[in-house]
Amino acid sequence: MDVLEELRSYREKDIPYSRVLSSMCTIPHELAVKAHQLFIGTNLGDPGIFPGTVELERKLVSMLGELLHRRDCAGYICSGGTEANIQGIRSARNLKRRKDPNIVIPKTAHFSFEKICDILCVEVRRANVDEDYRVDLAEVEGLIDGRTVAIVGIAGTTELGQIDPIVELSKLSEEKDIPLHVDAAFGGLVIPFMDRPYPFDFANKGVTSITIDPHKMGMATIPAGGILFRDESFLKALEVETPYLTSKMQFTLTGTRPGTGVASAYAVLKALGYNGMREIVKRCLKNTRILVEEMSALGFEPVIEPVMNVVAFKTERAEEIKQELYRRRWVISTIREPRAIRFVVMPHVTEEVIKNFMGEFRRVV
Ligand SMILES: Cc1ncc(COP(=O)(O)O)c(C=O)c1O
Q1: Strand partners, 20
Q2: Which one of 247, 269, 291 terminates a domain?
Q3: Which member of 68, 79, 95, 101 lies 3.0 to 4.6 Å from 149 by CB, making a disulfide possible if both were Cys?
Q4: Which of 245, 269, 293 is the last residue before a domain boundary?
Q5: Which tens digits make up the pLDDT trace of 178-189?
Q6: Quick check: CB of 222 below 6 Å from ligand 1?
Q7: Is 188 in the pocket of ligand 1 (CB under 6 A)?
């Protein structure tokens, strides 16, 4: 068999996005694909060889910074939310320099913080959430001590799409002089385009770093994550010497890294602009409403009224329903607590996809 034919046969085993209602990734925008192809072979790990790609990365970082109210922020485009979260916390830990450091995160934080705790040897303290699944401020305050090197707030939780009270967390972080890292891996490219955007970004003085992933709602090609810092000092805290490269220092976690995510993310944001992004987000929110109506008609109640295009519905049968759908090649997910089935209404989850899905869902339940 021809090798390409062989590759195709493997690829055909994958489930098409038109049957996926669980992923925070989506079909890349057609411009993202073209941009990706143009930058195949670029390596931002050796910047002297790719000055053009480096310049484009800086442009994209300030574009994202402008969206988050800090055009002159520092940062880079990385492999995704996990790396961005690691680097946000690593930088805060290096700057604060405390013995036996700890961080305070909401219980609803993404599992990348488990890895952070393991890799960075920081203790992770988990604060409870209120009845709306927003982190409880009194809990956060109670968990902070002299060894706390960072507080974390989430703008768009993985499971429910909820936004923590970042304004209040920021005040707390200023008061205690502790960096506040905001994980907006998902919400970073949703919230700014909503009708009433919640102020989750650098406009809050305590916010020192933000995770924002173009390979989620930015429709860039994978991998394209983003870590932005309030200023250069946070990047400096990550630097190591690079003896044999075209650069002297490196602040990234990975060495060799692609310029494809930079190009694809830039292409989408530049071509669509804020108005185009608003349209995409508006459609996803509308389709989320359609899904809620369809599910409500079958007696399923959302865990919280959806804040963005992530929604979970309570059911004791969550695991069984998920598995039965998977047998039928439909992918949804479940959440930790309460028992519920979860959906992410990405740009590929169109009205038609929802209609097809509901047909199958009715048969399953
Ligand atoms: C809030 C949040 N943070 C971080 C991540 C991790 O991102 P990645 O899978 O790109 O590493 C996710 C992934 O879904 C997420 O939802």
Answers
A1: 331
A2: 269
A3: 101
A4: 269
A5: 999 999 999 999
A6: no
A7: no
